């Protein structure tokens, strides 16, 4: 489905530089809150559903109009992007029932433990679930980041 009625996200969303993971996550959730701005199978697409870069550039703006969960985090960007991505990956693993949080560590169903969940947890969850589930993943990630003071 073409996304021709959507303006490029860089023209619609003008975020400050966020320093906290919870702020990056909240802004990214706002980007994909409109279901037409959420996608699966790519990080970002233009009005023709062609894969494009998701990061804003100073003079050469991205023409992305829609994003997956991880693409939205990359679009918002900022110093806390890596931390935000980790909270989102933790939330994805928990929401998919593949892991539980034990202290600050994820314990996966196969018994492995990790302090650093994988970005694949986010993209896999995003692509296999509904828009509503993706927003729930963001809500969990934001709660986790705020609880950690991030």
What structural category arises from helix and sheet content? mainly alpha
Whole-number mean pLDDT: 87
Q: Name the shape in a single word.
A: globular
Radius of gyration: 15 Å
Helix content: 40-55%
- Alpha-carbon distance between the termini? 37 Å
Largest sheet: 3 strands, antiparallel
DSSP strand count: 5
Give the strand line-up of the largest sheet.
3-4-5
**How many individual helices?**
6
Low-pLDDT runs of 5+ residues are none
Strand content: 5-15%
Number of domains as seen in the coordinates = 1
Order of helices and strands: HHEEHHEEEHH
Structure at a glance:
With 150 residues, the protein is mainly alpha-helical. It has helices at 9-12, 21-33, 69-76, 81-95, 119-128, 131-147; strands spanning 44-45, 66-67, 99-102, 105-108, 113-114.
